[in-house]
Amino acid sequence: MVYALKVFKKTSPNSKVTVYLGKRDYIDNITKIESVDGVALIDPEYLKGRKLFGQIVCSFRYGREEDEVMGLEFQKDLLMASGEIRASQKSDLTKMQERLIKKLGGNAFPFLFELPKNAPPSVTLQPGPEAQGKPCGVEYFLRIFVGESMDDRAHKRSTVSMGIRVIQFAPSQGQQGRQPCTVVRRDFVLSPGDLEMEINLDKQLYHHGDPIAVNVVIQNRSNKTVKKLRAQVLQCIDVCLFEHGSYKTPVVTLDTSEGCPIPPGGTLHRTYTMTPRLGAAVTDRHGVALGGRLRDEDTELASTTLMANPDDRDGFGIIVTYLIKVRLFLGALAGELVGELPIIMMHPKPNPKKLPRMDSVAFETFGSNSVDDAGQDLDRMKLDNVDE
User: What cellular component GO annotations does this protein have (predicted)?
Assistant: First the structure.
């Protein structure tokens, strides 16, 4: 059997610099983010005393591109990691780098960049149907360029820019957490008794695509009547840059009158099942948080943002959480009763696979002016350094 190692490849517009990456998704393990390693192939005659540099840029867009007028910008670019790429770095190589250098020859230089542990995960906010330009969100780009020093202005013709993602996976099955449960009650002015609702779930951690079974127990000890019930999975988005940048958007809504009306003295015990997924009802909804996009790959709802230290939330750009919300409608005059439960929704951590021996290499090639360069105006980019 012939084994092929899949490698992502992109060449600069002048065909003098080529970058190879073994993957474009890097896992954030809360305490450490996977290293970004790859190989850069350079034409030695093109250097002419100059040097090869690499940078990882985090781009945080918090406003519409079409609203940028008179020098106003709604994008902040942060320099997360940088360094010179030299031939002397050919030690402590990964297996992927060893195999690529063996295949590409002596002009292939390995590189490795470490991201700070508090780097935010990639996320994209769904733009409106008529929106133009880049969507709001957090994106990462790997830039390899030729210059005299790190501070040199990079020329597009000798620069390679590739989009990468920082993603988080769900904790192991042994860290599912406690079984969520909440009880809410409401008393009524000038009316005896109360209305009680208990909401509980079988677990706290769900994977994308898993059905969520919501157990609801209602005891009506008042003289009011429960007319109907609404259950929702809400995505809560907090844009940390703004004081009032928080909002909620439903990704699943279930309206039901099953078991209703619940008269005074009545009870109801039902289980409602909802499956949050990026369907037609959510895809076109403005403001829904999605996982970071790469080229034309399919994406999914953004995962819950996990933080080792909640005090560092301001550096995360956009924080995504989820909650279950159940609402009881009692009529126009009596009002409603609402209960909420937070949940964690993430992708399961993939099983680690051993790198097969390289009988051949399968390259996925990107054009020099592909979508990875979108929005990366090298002439106007301003980079702020990020400390570890």
Answer: cytoplasm
* Measured distance CA(260)–CA(371) in Å, rounded: 52
- In this structure, the number of other CB atoms found within 10 A of the CB of residue 242 comes to 9
Question: For the chain, what are the domain ranges?
Answer: 4-169+355-385, 173-346
Rounded to 5 degrees, φ, ψ at 80 are -85, -35
What does the DSSP 8-state code read for residue 314?
G
The pTM of the full predicted model, rounded to 2 decimals, is 0.83
Same fold, 4-169+355-385 and 173-346: yes
How many Å apart are CA 315 and CA 313, to the nearest integer? 5
Of 1 and 201, the one with more pLDDT: 201
Question: pLDDT tens for residues 147-176?
Answer: 888 888 778 888 999 999 999 988 776 555
Amino acid in the structure at residue 185:
R
Which residue in 321, 323, 324, 243 sits closest to 289, CA to CA?
321
> What is the spatial distance between Cα 310 and Cα 253, in angstroms, rounded to a whole number?
30
Architecture of domain 4-169+355-385: Sandwich (2.60)
pLDDT in tens, 4-29: 667 899 999 999 999 999 999 999 98
